[in-house]
Specification:
Elements (H helix, E strand, L loop, with lengths): L2 H22 L5 H22 L7 H5 L6 H12 L7 H26 L6 H31 L5 H27 L9 H55 L10 H8 L3 H10 L6 H18 L8 H7 L5 H12 L3 H10 L1
Helix pairs in contact: 1-2, 1-8, 2-4, 4-6, 5-6, 6-7, 7-8, 8-10, 9-10, 11-14
Length: about 350
């Protein structure tokens, strides 16, 4: 076995290992299943090339399974860079069309060589399929490039970094196979120059893509950890605010402001406001405090032994500075005035 065959065999094994790894992870994200498809198809494509020297024309039967190289990588690029609806039915139809053309061409070539068919329509049909494959493959490569290029405009530095790595490896690989290979002398490396470039392109794409997937997962894990830590901090802060306002009855202080609580807990005011929205379902700090004051006022207004207390006194005892704001707040939360509420409760 020559050195090129060893290199191709290495790429085949690498592709199969990556395909198995990502197929095992298929439930976590759609990008794993499409990358597994790309890796498996890549191994079959190189297996077809490798077996051509030893197992012709049966190597075309191996090539049948290498139908999702360009198309598989396009689907991967969509799944990697798009957050919502990365792959839809029309994408799969596009990929399926290319796959059918590739499979038919391999089957025609196998039939032609296996049974020595000599029909005028076979070469013409093979040529049509080859042109369609070239057109569709080129289109999918352009679309895969576009998926990475559009992310370069992102305001998030991590996304731009991943897009830059993706585009660099993608462009180098495509240029190696399509441009450099065409410029190579026909006798270079005993005519195997293009096959070496193909093996190099596969290695570059497989390793760089695997690195991108791992980097993306690391960023996601770090984000989850930061989120969990932030949630724990918010829960602890919410407990402290509740202890100050409810257990120590700070809400009964008429001059209480959000700045007072923030200063006492040594946190920015915006964090207090965030807690009010996320944990206490309150519009703002004053809304939450007034809600507790009104509940306190209701207990006073419902008490028979305090039925002679004026509304002003009830409001002051509940943390309001005067009767007007107390009445407005009471109507907002209870739907009636303090006097009407007292009358209803005492009558009941």
């Amino acid at each position: 076995m020559d050195l090129l065959s060893i290199a191709q065999l290495f790429v085949i094994l690498l592709s199969l290992v990556l395909a198995a790894i990502h197929y095992h992870l298929r439930r976590s994200h759609v990008l794993h299943i499409v990358f597994a498809l790309f890796c498996a198809s890549s191994s079959m494509h190189l297996g077809y090339k490798l077996a051509g020297n030893y197992w012709a024309p049966y190597h075309h039967l191996i090539g049948v399974f290498g139908f999702a190289t360009c198309s598989g990588y396009w689907l991967f690029s969509r799944a990697f860079f798009r957050k919502t609806n990365p792959i839809n039915r029309h994408h799969l139809l596009f990929v399926g069309l290319l796959g059918v053309c590739l499979i038919l061409r391999h089957l025609l070539r196998f039939s032609e060589k296996m049974w020595l068919l000599d029909n005028d329509w076979l070469p013409a049909l093979t040529t049509v399929l080859s042109e369609a494959i070239a057109l569709l493959s080129s289109g999918m490569l352009i679309l895969a490039f576009w998926e990475g290029y559009r992310v370069l405009q992102s305001t998030i530095a991590i996304y731009r970094k991943m897009a830059g790595i993706f585009l660099t490896s993608f462009v180098i690989s495509c240029a190696s196979v399509m441009l450099f290979a065409a410029a190579l002398p026909a006798d270079l490396l005993a005519g195997e120059g293009r096959d070496w470039l193909v093996a190099f392109a596969y290695i570059l794409i497989l390793i760089s893509t695997q690195g991108l997937i791992r980097y993306r997962q690391q960023q996601f894990d770090q984000k989850v950890k930061r989120t969990d830590s932030s949630v724990q901090e918010e829960n602890a802060l919410a407990h402290q605010i509740h202890a100050l306002l409810v257990k120590e009855k700070r809400y009964l202080e008429p001059s209480l402001r959000v700045a007072d609580i923030a200063r006492e807990l040594d946190v920015p005011e915006y964090r207090i406001r965030t807690i009010m929205l996320n944990h206490f379902n309150a519009k703002n700090f004053n809304h939450y405090v007034n809600q507790m004051r009104i509940e306190h006022a209701k207990t006073i207004l419902s008490a028979p032994d305090k039925s002679d207390w004026p509304v002003l006194v009830v409001g002051i005892e509940s943390g309001f500075a005067s009767a007007a704001p107390f009445t407005r707040a009471f109507k907002e939360f209870a739907g009636c005035t303090p006097g009407q509420y007292r009358k209803q409760q005492l009558t009941t």
